[in-house]
Automatic annotation (TrEMBL):
<feature type="transmembrane region" description="Helical">
    <location>
        <begin position="235"/>
        <end position="258"/>
    </location>
</feature>
<feature type="transmembrane region" description="Helical">
    <location>
        <begin position="25"/>
        <end position="46"/>
    </location>
</feature>
<dbReference type="GO" id="GO:0042158">
    <property type="term" value="P:lipoprotein biosynthetic process"/>
</dbReference>
<keyword id="KW-0472">Membrane</keyword>
<protein>
    <recommendedName>
        <fullName>Phosphatidylglycerol--prolipoprotein diacylglyceryl transferase</fullName>
        <ecNumber>2.5.1.145</ecNumber>
    </recommendedName>
</protein>
<dbReference type="InterPro" id="IPR001640">
    <property type="entry name" value="Lgt"/>
</dbReference>
<feature type="transmembrane region" description="Helical">
    <location>
        <begin position="179"/>
        <end position="196"/>
    </location>
</feature>
<feature type="transmembrane region" description="Helical">
    <location>
        <begin position="98"/>
        <end position="115"/>
    </location>
</feature>
<feature type="transmembrane region" description="Helical">
    <location>
        <begin position="58"/>
        <end position="78"/>
    </location>
</feature>
<dbReference type="Pfam" id="PF01790">
    <property type="entry name" value="LGT"/>
</dbReference>
<keyword id="KW-1003">Cell membrane</keyword>
<dbReference type="GO" id="GO:0005886">
    <property type="term" value="C:plasma membrane"/>
</dbReference>
<dbReference type="GO" id="GO:0008961">
    <property type="term" value="F:phosphatidylglycerol-prolipoprotein diacylglyceryl transferase activity"/>
</dbReference>
<feature type="transmembrane region" description="Helical">
    <location>
        <begin position="203"/>
        <end position="223"/>
    </location>
</feature>
<comment type="pathway">
    <text>Protein modification; lipoprotein biosynthesis (diacylglyceryl transfer).</text>
</comment>
<keyword id="KW-1133">Transmembrane helix</keyword>
<comment type="function">
    <text>Catalyzes the transfer of the diacylglyceryl group from phosphatidylglycerol to the sulfhydryl group of the N-terminal cysteine of a prolipoprotein, the first step in the formation of mature lipoproteins.</text>
</comment>
């Protein structure tokens, strides 16, 4: 095997540090996900008759839902025995450990609370938010690449990465699964944004959310076959934890798309609730 034929990857996860303060690529890209997402969502909301204030409020709900959901998802889905025995460790987010499936659940719950409190049509909110969530997911997976984590199996494909920071000797060429996911979710962002840009409020309610959930977690299901196990217990499992968690979300997405196909009804302008639903 000629390792010179592959792509060496030795990026330092830390950009710079000042005393005890460390700025890392993952944290920066995580922050960019919300900064860029807020700007795009503002454009969407204003174009449909909502205000920038609505975006400020929903962004706060999103941040809280994402962080809490992603952290609890990692601790409860992947290592519940350890974290339930050491609950204080759950709070140590800076040590790593966030799960996208947990983030999905956290976001869905946070947006349900937002919609109920602010009198929005829940599905209208989901249809718009998935556009920026897709962009955020692409940036966060780039953060995983910068950390040389969530790596793929050994391979001989010409675009294989040599993750030198893993300390493998000799360095093993591996699938850059972080890049696969980042590119796929970015393309999903482009598709969703294009559909919104072209049709806006004429879009059938639930279409964007259904496409997002179905496409995202179907790809996630299959790309997991190329990944190394995240925790030891996955070595004895037919499907890993990420795949098992993806299946119900795929089914939910397909169900929503089926309902959209049966009854393609657009939401009220600006995501307003119908009068009957306010009573």
């Amino acid at each position: 095997m000629n390792l010179l034929n592959y792509i060496p990857w030795n990026v330092d996860p830390e950009i710079f540090s000042i005393g005890p303060l460390s700025v890392r690529w993952y944290g920066l890209l995580f922050a960019f996900a919300f900064i860029f997402g807020q700007r795009i969502l503002t454009k969407i909301y204003v174009a449909e008759g909502r205000t920038e204030g609505d975006v400020d409020v929903i962004t706060l709900y999103m941040i809280i839902g994402t962080v809490i959901g992603a952290r609890l998802g990692h601790t409860l889905f992947y290592s519940p025995e350890y974290y339930l025995s050491n609950p204080i460790e759950i709070l140590k987010i800076w040590e790593g450990g966030l799960a996208s499936h947990g983030a999905t659940i956290g976001i869905l719950f946070a947006l349900w609370l937002f919609s109920r409190k602010q009198k929005f049509d829940y599905m209208w909110v989901l249809d718009r938010i998935v556009i920026v969530v897709a962009l955020g997911g692409a940036l966060i997976r780039l953060g995983n690449l910068m950390n040389s984590e969530i790596i793929g199996h050994q391979t001989t494909v010409p675009w294989a990465f040599l993750f030198e920071r893993l300390g493998e000797n000799p360095t093993v060429p591996r699938h850059p699964t972080q890049l696969y996911e980042s590119l796929s979710v970015f393309l999903l962002f482009v598709l969703l944004y294009w559909l919104w840009k072209k049709y806006k409020s004429a879009l059938p309610k639930g279409l964007l959310f259904g496409i997002f959930v179905t496409a995202l977690f179907t790809f996630r299901f299959f790309v997991e076959f190329l990944k190394e196990d995240q925790v030891e217990k996955e070595a004895t499992m037919v499907l890993n934890i990420g795949q098992i968690l993806s299946i119900p979300l795929i089914l939910i997405g397909l169900f929503i798309l089926f309902k959209v196909w049966q009854n393609p009804k657009p939401a009220l302008p600006g995501g307003r609730l119908e009068e009957s639903s306010k009573a």
